[in-house]
Amino acid sequence: MNILLQLFHITPKRYLQYRTVLRVCLPLVLSLSATTMMEFTDRIFLANYEIDAISAALPAASVSFLFLVFFGGVSGYAGVFIAQYTGRGDHRKVGSVLWQAIWFSLGAAVVIFILGLFAEPIFAFVGHTARVQQLERTYFSILCNGSVLQLTMVTLSAFLTGRGLTRPVMVITFIGVIINIPLDYALIFGHIGFPECGIGGAAIATVFSWMVNTLLLAILIFTRHNNKEFAVFDGWRFHRKRFFRLMRFGIPGAMQFTTDVATFTFFILLIGRIGGNALAATNIVFSINSLSFMPAMGASQGVSILVGQALGRGKPKQAKDAVRRASEMLFFYVLLVDIAMLFYPEVLLSPFFVENGPEGQAVQEMAVILLRIVAAFLFFDAFYMVFSGALRGAGDTAYMMWAAGLTGIFTMVLPVWVGIVFFDISITTAWFAVLAFLAIIFTISLRRYLSGKWQKMIVIEEE
User: Fold this and answer.
1) Chain centroid to CA 34: how far?
2) CA 397 to CA 182: how far, in whole Å?
3) What letter does residue 453 receive in the DSSP assignment?
4) What is the pLDDT of residues 73-83, one digit of tens each?
């Protein structure tokens, strides 16, 4: 170990900083990777079940995720409050802010359930084929019906992650994944005594895993010990000022990520107008990108926690050190992923093409080109997440909300829509709009971070 530290000129102080970042971020990376692996497995099964099923899965999941990510982002922002309360040592307020997020989640679940009733007009507007629309409605409706479980799971996770206890969240997530994958196989294809449910089976398996995760988190959190220290029972009452403070910072924070998701959702839906093969290739490549992107997302969440705790302690330099170390480690990860995408794309795509007929071959050739475009923008995407995570942990959420929304509209949504509707552009040309969007939003987040304004911000009330 000492030889490695000397080789890379790593001082003991810097080594401890790396350890702290890894302790918080790595379990989040593994947890998110496990969740994405679950979705990835869904799509592998569906790709080998029916081409229309894989074509429907990502658009339907993206639309449902659009609602879940906003409401879950607001309630999950309680983790930043908890991080700052933890940094300041104000533990008795943790339970109260957790309950404000729970009350919000329950109301949000009702809204999403109602939105699920409008599945038919939503996907009719998109204009995919009749068969794909039918499958999209099925998948979307089931996920919306189970949304209360997912939102509650995100909220309860914030109690642990905000305090830097990310390992229990990782373990519980893995348990959900272990249950989901065989249940997926059984319900999609109709094995082990289960009926053949196709794409509906994939959605049911996902909702069941949400239920398992929520129950395990509740058992872990709502204990006498946690009530004594954090008021997890005593803090159940609605606290108007704390609730609206959560809304003040949480809504812009959630909107930033929601606008990102909305931008990519509209992009996917527009790609469906180019053709079925283009949509299938896009879905497959986004599935691979989602899996490779999870370390950046985990690093972003971990950086938010570390920045929040450091600012709660009144030590912004510790926050800057955490961002720097996370960025350094992420750089080497992205470099390895880019090498795989550029030089071994067929290996990455092989799970989706077990039985590769003429149609599958055409989709695979298209997907190889798209993977190389992903390799070009992965650095921008990863570091945008790290810098926006730092800003989010400080409470600098409104600026990035507007930046993400306007950049997405004017560099991705409008150009791709005009190009497809009026100029019949190719799928490759459409994907270069993704590269432009991520390069610009990365530059904006970097400039905002370097301005240093976030170091003077805090989301919790002053002492």
Assistant:
1) 12
2) 39
3) G
4) 899 999 999 99
